[in-house]
Every structure is written in C-alpha cells, then in structure tokens.
Amino acid sequence: MRRAWLVAMLCCALPPASAPAQHRQVVIYRCTDAGGHVTLQNDVACPRGTQQRKQVVDVPPPMPTYQPREERMPAIVAAERAEVQAAINQALRIARMGGAVSLLGIPTNEAVTIERFAGDLIFKGLSLQAIIGRRIFSTWDRMLELLADGLDLRPLVSREYDGLDAFIEGMEAFDAHEALKVVFYPHGKNGDGHA
Q1: Domain identity same for 171 and 115
Q2: Range of the domain at 32
C-alpha cells in the first residue's frame, strides 16, 4: 500500500514527459523529523537532523496524449410519418441524450400527446426540429450520413413485400396505422426478380 502511495505521489510530482518514454528511475526520500512529521521528497536528500529512508522507483511511462474524437453531430432520429402519434413517441424514446428529433410530417389531429414528456424529452435534453420543404435536401444528406455510419433501420420496417402484387394490402395496412414502414421490392428482395 505504501509503495502504491509513493508511486502515486511521484506521478503527481513529476513534470509531464514530452519526449518519447525512456526508462528512468527516481529516488524517493522519506524524511521524519524529531516531532514525527513525515515528508516525501524526490531526488533531494532529507535535511540534517531528520531520519531518512531512501527508495528507488521506476518512473511509469507517460499517459498517451489525449486525442479528441472527430466532432460528430448528435444522434438524429427522423420521424417521417409524424401524423402517427406512436411514431413521435417512439422517436423520442430511442433518441440518445443530447440528440435531436426531426419531425417531417403533419399530424392528422392538431394535438399530439407526448407520453413521457419529462423522461423522453426534458431529461434527455433533446431538440425538436420541425422540417419543412426548404430543408428537405439537407435532411436527406443527414440521413445518408447516419446510414453510412451504420444506422440500422430494420427495426422500423413493419412489413416487407416481394414485388408490387401486394401494394394495395401494404398501403391499407399503412393507412390504418397497422404498419409504420412498408417496404416493397419491385424486383424481389434480392433484386433479381426472385424472393
């Protein structure tokens, strides 16, 4: 325990290394005066009249220099079908702390209830952004960046259809709010005309 304490004191007393680490040792002097008071000194012997204990320790290598991460925009969750109250609440629920939720649609009712106002909005520090047509291209660019960073949209897809034969069925499910996102694969899911 004492050795760890001495090494910790030594680390605090040493200036930060700017050159590449090289093996170095330091002499720690534990000085006890006539009154029993203890002082620690590095590379300086104890004054006369004090009891001296000497210990040689290796200097630990310097910590790596802090490299800040590349500045990234906060987590953005886009609720494209904002007229569905459940979609807005889901977007608020899955957004990360300090993120933003972009609302792109127009609600069918004037009033929208936020189910967990404090927990999903206030305490997360979220920003709500209403998007209108003038910003549509920047939202596409933002979404492409999120997809390139690995955003997985599969959990949002409610129904998938191979081909367009079930187009009416899929759109009816969408309009009845039974499906949040409906994906049609005109040439099959693999793109080769087969399922």
Answers
A1: no
A2: 2-11+25-58
Task: Please indicate, yes or no, if residue 146 is contained in any of the structural domains.
Answer: yes
- The token duo for 87 is 């979609």
- List the chain pLDDT tens, one digit each, 195 residues: 444 444 444 444 444 444 444 567 888 888 999 999 888 888 889 999 999 999 888 877 776 776 666 655 545 555 555 467 777 888 888 888 888 888 777 777 777 888 998 998 899 898 888 777 666 677 778 888 888 888 888 888 889 988 888 889 988 988 888 888 888 888 888 776 655
Encoding tokens for residue 64? 């790596």
Which pTM was predicted?
0.36
Looking at this protein, which amino acid is placed at residue 30? R
Q: How far is Cα 40 from Cα 29, in angstroms, rounded to an integer?
A: 6
Burial of residue 43 (CB within 10 Å: 0-12, 13-18, 19+) is exposed
Hey, is 157 helix, strand or coil? coil
Domain count, the chain: 3
User: Based on the domain organization, do 106 and 144 belong to the same domain?
Assistant: yes
